[in-house]
Fold:
Amino acid sequence: MSRLSSKERARLRSQAHPLKPILQVGADGISPAFGRSLTEAFNTRELLKVKVLDTSDLSAREAADAVGGEVDGVEVVQVIGRTLVLYRPFPEEAGEEGAAGRR
Structure:
């Protein structure tokens, strides 16, 4: 897993600002089913938001750390409140810079 530079992280944060959370972490936490859903979501997009519900036993930071163990290649761009911003370059671009390096 490559580390994002501060410029790349800032660009991704600005791109994620208008996005709505598409997945939620609930009482089950980061389960294998959640990992599969997250992987499927990353098949169609590189950047997404995940909401950690109040019913979850995990804090947003704990959930962000757990996501890295469940899905390979995911970078945590930002944790703000109970929302995670996650980035993973498309597989065919994994050897290149991905969206973070474009523009």
